[in-house]
Design brief:
CATH superfamily: 2-enoyl-CoA Hydratase, Chain A, domain 1
Radius of gyration: 18 Å
Distance between the termini: 56 Å
Largest sheet: 7 strands, mixed
Strand content: 15-25%
Helix content: 40-55%
Order of helices and strands: EEEHEHHEEHEEHEHEHHHH
Strand order of the largest sheet: 1-2-3-4-5-7-10
CATH architecture: Alpha-Beta Complex
């Protein structure tokens, strides 16, 4: 049975002022009913380090509080520079064998939170959205990408499974597509991702991408906020990603299973070998 319980009121946002909050690696901006989170480490292609996770978790907690106060309807998630997010900061993982497991757990919680958050989450993707970056994209409601965008889970080469992303990935692109993308480690372009259903809009360049996202936000803001939030909630219940659903109820199982692999000899050995070859230029 679908749960249609929603708050009876929703702030119009007409009198809301812009709030800018800067973290070294994550920036947030709130204006009216739209909350924007920007991964802001272009030099590292927005790789997910301890500091990046810290900033992103704070930003998501801020937006969650705003949603609970009925102030935010739409969340935009984007990356600065030429990449959305290239995955984990592997240098940090090589230096400390426990970090990879910690990163997986934090990524799983962030992805789950984005999926069940009662706000419409839009990913604005240019350049690579790989591994953890692809997991975040798969958790969003609507994905807009530029022609330069790429997606995939090239993680088996370091002995890691992408299973932490499977609940939302399977719900988004179907079991067959998820199985192929997760097992192959293939990196696909924006048009292929659109064909699979991972991406909904593809634009020729970053300027057109920004315009598409702005137009989408404007269109959504004309809709009934309670109806939009109810629709997302019902979609989650139907596709199984709600906390009690077939996929949502397995989120912590996939997080734990993926995290445990990170501490195995295979992952430690393969990550070290991959990193030494990369640093050596081979």
């Amino acid at each position: 049975m679908l749960d249609n319980t929603l708050p009876e009121t929703f702030s119009s946002g007409e009198n809301s002022t812009m709030i800018n909050s800067e973290h070294p690696l994550v920036q947030t901006e709130s204006e009216g009913r739209t909350f924007t989170i920007t991964l802001n480490n272009a030099a590292m292609r927005n790789a997910m380090s301890t500091a990046m996770f810290d900033g992103l978790e704070v930003a998501i907690e801020r937006v969650r509080a705003s949603v609970q106060r009925d102030e935010t309807l739409i969340v935009i998630l984007r990356g600065a520079g030429k990449a959305f997010c290239s995955g984990f900061d592997l240098a940090e993982c090589v230096n400390d064998n426990t970090m990879l497991e910690q990163f997986v757990r934090r990524l799983g919680e962030i992805s789950s939170t984005l999926r069940i958050m009662p706000a419409i989450v839009i990913a604005q993707v240019q350049g690579p959205a790989l591994a953890g970056g692809c997991a975040i994209v798969a958790a969003c409601d609507i994905v807009c990408a530029s022609g330069s965008a790429s997606f995939g889970y090239p993680v088996h080469r370091i002995g890691v499974s992408p299973a932490v992303s499977l609940p939302t990935l399977m719900a988004t692109i179907g079991f067959g597509g998820a199985r192929s993308l997760a097992l192959s480690g293939e990196i696909i372009d924006a048009q292929r991702a659109k064909a699979l259903g991972l991406v909904q809009f593809v634009e020729c360049d970053e300027s057109a991408l920004a315009g598409r996202v702005a137009a989408l936000v404007d269109a959504l803001l004309l809709k009934g906020p309670q109806a939009l939030r109810a629709t997302k909630m019902w979609l989650n219940q139907i596709d199984g990603t709600s906390p009690e659903g077939f996929l949502g109820s397995r989120v912590h199982d996939t997080i734990n299973a993926t995290a445990k692999l990170c501490g195995k000899k295979e992952a430690i050995s393969m990550l070290g070998d991959f990193w030494s070859k990369r640093k050596g230029g081979s």
